[in-house]
Amino acid sequence: MSTTTTLSPLWVRVLAKRAEAEGICSLELVDVDGRELPPFSAGSHIDLHLPNGLVRQYSLCNHPEERHRYLVAVLRDPSSRGGSSAVHELLKEGDVLQISEPRNHFHLVPAQHAILLGGGIGVTPILCMAERLRQTNVQFEMHYCTREPSRTAFQARIAASSFADRVHYHFDSGAPEQKLDARTTLGTPEAGKHLFVCGPNGFMDWIIGTARELGWSEDNIHREYFAAAEVDTSFDGSFQIKIASTGAVLTVQKNQTITQVLEADGFNLPISCEQGVCGTCLTRVLEGAIDHRDMFLTDAERAQNDQFTPCVSRAKTGCKTLVLDL
Ligand code: FES
Predict the structure, then answer these.
(1) Residue minimizing CA distance to atom 3 of ligand 1
(2) CA 229, 235, 238 angle in degrees (round to 5)?
């Protein structure tokens, strides 16, 4: 697996590893030499280069003004391809690991009223946003949906925070009256009202689908997926990619990704998640019809047909060649 990123690598030490809830641990990371870490904004994430060689992205969940540490939280995922189990089983306090500088694809845009919705471990960027909104005195409410209290991370931190009264918990295991009523929570769309949502794919689809039904503008819906969507690959075929700068034409077989083909040809395209989630491999497309399979671009961006994530996306059936701006 490639571990190339476009950002400067940093070396950090695991200062603390804490159990935050059933199946969830947090890592407090500090610079190995005790220096300040690069600044970050609410919604940012970092790459962790894990001891088993995998590179995974985790949202920063501490206060975005902190420079002395980064805080991430990781859910042990039974269907994980090895990232979460490496964090839970291999990493320990005192370990040194490489991370990337923070980057942000989930910006906290200016809002008159923000609705923050976190599903499960998706609470991590949401918590960081709540810290920022409280600090800047923006009106907001935070809804935190989980299966049950024992699997709900950061309850003590939230209770001790200055925004505790803005947080509403919704447990799947709880009474019907405390469950999230998405329609009522989202309410009538307004120009200054913005939704920020992060969580499992089903949760995201439900919330975003409800917002659309209520007439929300796409410009007011902000989201971050942390898992790739299930895609039916049974009809995948081969196609060609053309490198615009050299004219080289490469064939992508049905069981290959474009990034694999580029890498095999010696092309050093930055990649990270390889799931269409992080946007690291985003590449401009000059010609050809794209079959978007990522969770990163918005519908409006996809419709433009001028950029894609080659780690998962392909040429549409019937399109023989994609011309890449490489
Ligand atoms: S590497 Fe993350 S979207 Fe392609």
Answers:
(1) 276
(2) 105
Give the model's pLDDT for residue 234.
79
How many domains are there within the chain?
A: 3
Residue 92 lies in a domain: yes
Q: Residue 297: what residue type?
A: L
Point out the ligand 1 atom lying closest to the alpha carbon of residue 281.
Answer: 4
Top mutation candidate among 271, 293, 302 for ligand 1, by most atoms within 8 Å of CB: 271
What per-residue confidence (pLDDT) applies to 6? 46
Measured over the CA atoms of residue 36, residue 157, residue 104 and residue 53, the dihedral's sign is: positive
Q: Which residues, given as ranges, of the chain have pLDDT below 50?
A: 1-6
One domain for residues 123 and 220:
yes
How does pLDDT run across 17-48, given as a tens digit for each residue?
A: 999 999 999 999 999 999 999 999 999 999 89
pLDDT, tens digit, for every residue of 162-202?
999 999 999 999 999 999 999 999 999 999 999 999 999 89
Q: 258: how many CB neighbours lie within 10 A of its CB?
A: 25
Alpha carbon 326 to its chain centroid, in Å, reads 25
Same domain for 125 and 196, yes or no, is yes
Model confidence, pTM: 0.83
pLDDT confidence of residue 275: 85
Give residue 208's domain range. Answer: 113-225
Residue 194 within a domain: yes
φ and ψ at 254, to 5 degrees? Answer: -60, -30
Nearest to 69 by CA among 109, 107, 111, 38: 38
The rounded Å distance from CA 62 to ligand 1 centre is 24
Distance 230 CA to ligand 1 centre (A): 15
Among candidate residues 104, 122, 146, the one where a domain is terminated? 104
Q: What is the pLDDT of residue 3?
A: 36
- Domain end marker among 160, 191, 225: 225
